[in-house]
User: What shape does this take?
Amino acid sequence: MIQAAVDTRLSERIEQIGKFVGKTPLFPIKRVFHKPGVKIYAKLEWQQLGGSVKARPAYQIIKEAIRSGKLTDGKHLVDASSGNTAIAYAAIGSAAGIPVTICIPENASAERKLLLRSYGAKVIFTPAVGEMDDAQDCARTLSEEKPYEYYYADQYSNVNNWKAHYLTTAEEVYQQTNGKITHFVAGLGTTGTFVGTTRRLKEINPDIQCISFQPDTAFHGLEGWKHLETARVPRIYDASVADQNFGVDTMEAYEWLKRLAREEGLLVSPSAAANLAGAIRVAEQIEEGVIVTTFADSADKYGEVIRELFK
Assistant: This one.
């Protein structure tokens, strides 16, 4: 009875936090690209709790874990992340009173490490050479060895990752464009944004074209994105939902990053700029349409890249 009462309070806290997740604005791209008959919009995903698009899946994963009884008051949420999901877990965990443990490669940026410490998350560093594979193995092992202390969120396999976008992102972009969206474009990382948004948009209107992008080589500078031919493919990924899939060059993304800052007033992350590169590629191939993409986060956590690009 006592535990049930405690978990009810936890559920109430997480519901309150949900008011600050999602509902991000749709920004019209007008100066860096203009073509009569074609419009490009970007969701400014850093304008929510946790500062990135990962607030959506982190919140949905936590909410459903509490509802199912897998995450109870006092139990640690543990997961592997290269940065944004970790920060979203930590921010939401801090607000809800949920302890968070993150396994992260030791070469994560100084900004990410500082944010995680600021939110009070426990951080376990894994070897940089192992990248996310080692971090995932670390989180899984910890939960297996201490199942009563840790809940393994497993963002790469958790269906609530893509369901977050199915339930929120897709509905938002459809409503914000008054149902006029013709193309949805997004890069592939955990793949939740693209898979979830596409599944729902296709249900609403099967004619909406959904195009995914990934780095064009295994060695790239698009943090959070995966070159699926050489990476451990997330279990939630469904290749069948994409109408097309293309590669994006890192240097091209960097050029768009600079132009967005100087011509649109948006200083974004390399992956956000890569999404714009993808959207513009689609725009160049059509005569009319409304293209929507997502800007996962701002440039706040990419100090080294930004310093190099704007020196």
The first strand starts at residue 26 and ends at 29. The first helix runs from residue 2 to 17. The radius of gyration is 19 Å.
